[in-house]
Structures are given as C-alpha cells and as structure tokens.
From TrEMBL:
InterPro entries: GbpR_PBP2, HTH-type_LysR_regulators, LysR_HTH_N, LysR_subst-bd, WH-like_DNA-bd_sf, WH_DNA-bd_sf. Pfam families: HTH_1, LysR_substrate. PANTHER family: HTH-TYPE TRANSCRIPTIONAL REGULATOR YBHD, NITROGEN ASSIMILATION TRANSCRIPTIONAL ACTIVATOR-RELATED. Belongs to the LysR transcriptional regulatory family. This is Transcriptional regulator LysR family. Residues 43-100 form the HTH lysR-type domain. Keywords: DNA-binding, Transcription, Transcription regulation.
Amino acid sequence: MADRKNVSLRRIIARFNAGCRMKQNTSHSVSPSVSPNTLINRLKFKHLALLVALDDARNLHQAAEAINVAQPSASRMLADIEEAFGFLLFERNARGMQPTPLGTAALAYARRSLADLTRFADDLDAKRRGGHGQLTVGAIMGAAPDVLAMAVTELKSERPLLNVRILGETSDQVVQLLHRREVDLALGRLTTPLQHNDFDFEPLAREAMRLVVRAGHPLAEKTALALDMLVGWPWILQPITSPARGLFEDELARAGLTTPSDIVECASIFATLQLLQNSDAVAMLPESVVRDYLRAQLLIELPIEIGKSLSGFGLLRRKFETLSEPAEYFIALLRKYSALSH
C-alpha cells in the first residue's frame, strides 16, 4: 500500500512540474533541481550561442538568424534548454522576450562560456600557426598614447607573435567588456560604487583634461574665458555614463550652468577629433590624446582649467581570477611605464 501511495505521489508531482513548465509566470516555472550531469549531457555550445543571441535581440526570429538556424529549430532548442535547466529563462510577452531573474544568471554563464571558448579557439589557432597566444585589453583613450602604447611596444618587441587586441575607449565601455569577459584586463576607472565587489583596481596614472577647439575657431584667440561663455557653442561630449562626462556635468553644476543644448555624444576618439577639426564645436579631451594635435596647431587649447577632480585611471581585473602569463607580464610593463611608478 505504501508503495502504491509513493507511486501516486510521484505521478502527482510529475504532472505538477509538467504544468509548471507550460506556464509563463516565472514564479510557477521552477521544477525539481537538475543535477550538473544533466546539464553536461544536454547543453551544447550551440545552445549557449542561442541564449546570447536571444539576450541581444529579445526576439526568437532574429536570434535564430544570428546563429544560422531556422526559427522552429531555435524554438525547439530553447525548449530543450529550459527543460535542462528546469525553469523558464525568458518570459514571452507582447514586448518580446525578457529574461527571468534565474534566466539572467544563466545568460551571464552563457556569455562567459562563449567568451572563454572564443579565447581558447583563438589561442589554439595562434599556436597552430606558430604564434604564442592572445592578449585582449580594454583601454580608455587617455591611457592609449602613453602608458598603453609604451607597454604594448615593449611587449611586442619581446614577443612579436603574441596577438594583442585593444578594445574600448571610455571607462563604461571597458568595464562592460571586462564584465562580459571579452577582455583579459582593462585600463580605466570604476564607474559605479559597487563595482569594487567584482573588480580589483590599481591606480596607474593621472589623466589631465583639456578644452580644445579647431585652429581658426572664433574662440582660439581668446586669452581669458569662463565656462559660461562656452555653453552656447556646439559641444562634442563623451556618453553620459562615462566618468569624464560626469566630471563635466559636475563642473557645470558648480558654475550654476545647464548642459549645452547643441551636443553630439561620441565615444570614439577618432570621430571626435575629426568632428572637432571640421566644425566650431568644443570638446573636453585627455591631454595625452590631443598633445600632438596641439603641437601641430591643428587644435587649440582654451584657457580654462577643467577636470582637476577627475580621478586617475588604473588597472582593472576581475576578482579572484588567475591571468595568463602574457597578461601578468603585460601588467608588469604597465606598472613600469605608469606615472605613479616613477
């Protein structure tokens, strides 16, 4: 009798869990815990690629196109993935597909796994071709002309077959790249108060800021200026999420001024420099970036001191992670060339 009761109970639980998986409400979508062996046996890298594509597109048709499968196949893959995990990863609604709280954790794992596989495949290919691995670095534009350039130059002189990639231009970009494991380490700043829980930060250098305009600009001959005289001009500014933009907005607030109404937001240093030389815009850029342009008189520095409160940039790395030997050696070179090591 007891055995029959246990069998009936198991059947009831099985029916309940099957019904839970059919519901869209995540609070009713959790099934019994799935063992690691189940995930190992059922999950494939193609599944993880689909999850990342869905997270980017929030649309099943577009995600299927991104990984080159038909939409029905993508739909079956997603059903298999959610069954393997034991809970819904996405809510389906009129706005598209939104990750559930547990789905967000699974998506972060999918991104990390694909990034690790990509780096492994690139490194393996480099070794196959006689190279010696790959190093991917995120860097703000202010670090590139000095500390980064000198460290990379010495690294490549000693290890010419090491493939070095440099990504990003603003701190918010490089922190995101580091979080998504698309870079091994980064040069930049923490951009939110809680990021110290995820990343270690080691100061390396200061970053002096300069207000600049093109040669021949109507303001270029001014020997005395105040910030309130500039807000009526066009501006090229970094995105609002960047520390430099935050500093600029703080300077305006202290002066009792509002943000200029005529602005172009641009994270690309190359695009910013081109726009500056072909317009009457004003920009706030790192001294290391505009130094050669000032010497060549392609740009003119305006006589306003700004950016004194901008914190120095430094080395960012993920906590509790062991880096490769080339990455550790590159960090040693960064310390060698940083302004704080002299």
